[in-house]
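Run log // design_07
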């Protein structure tokens, strides 16, 4: 097994994770009637729920893959913007694919350590 240096780990955290902490997006669903959930809470909740439901839906589903997809399901929206059906303009909804494709290309370019 290859040993990874502390400097390499710190570089990954700096290059891959920290930029996402700077992104400010709208909050999502109400949490206990007190406040709206943030993006991290949303992704974590979806991931836990997906892993719990996957074997009940299909015993052959790979939980690891389900978890990976759930964790990144909104990643391109971090850069493309969230497309809400009722509150987003018609032109933005129409060009959603183009926005998300451009965002994926940006992620591949700017975050080469991320396995796309």
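design_07 sequence
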């Amino acid at each position: 097994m290859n040993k990874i240096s502390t400097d390499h780990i710190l570089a990954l955290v700096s290059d891959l994770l920290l930029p996402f902490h700077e992104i400010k997006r709208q909050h999502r669903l109400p949490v206990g009637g007190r406040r709206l959930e943030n993006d991290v809470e949303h992704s974590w909740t979806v991931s836990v729920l997906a892993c719990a439901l996957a074997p009940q839906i299909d015993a052959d589903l790979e939980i690891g893959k389900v978890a990976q997809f759930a964790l990144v399901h909104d990643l391109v929206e971090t850069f493309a913007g969230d497309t809400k059906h009722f509150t987003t303009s018609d032109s933005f909804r129409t060009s959603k694919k183009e926005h998300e494709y451009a965002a994926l290309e940006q992620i591949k370019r700017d975050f080469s350590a991320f396995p796309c």
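Residues 52 and 63 are 9 Å apart (CA to CA).
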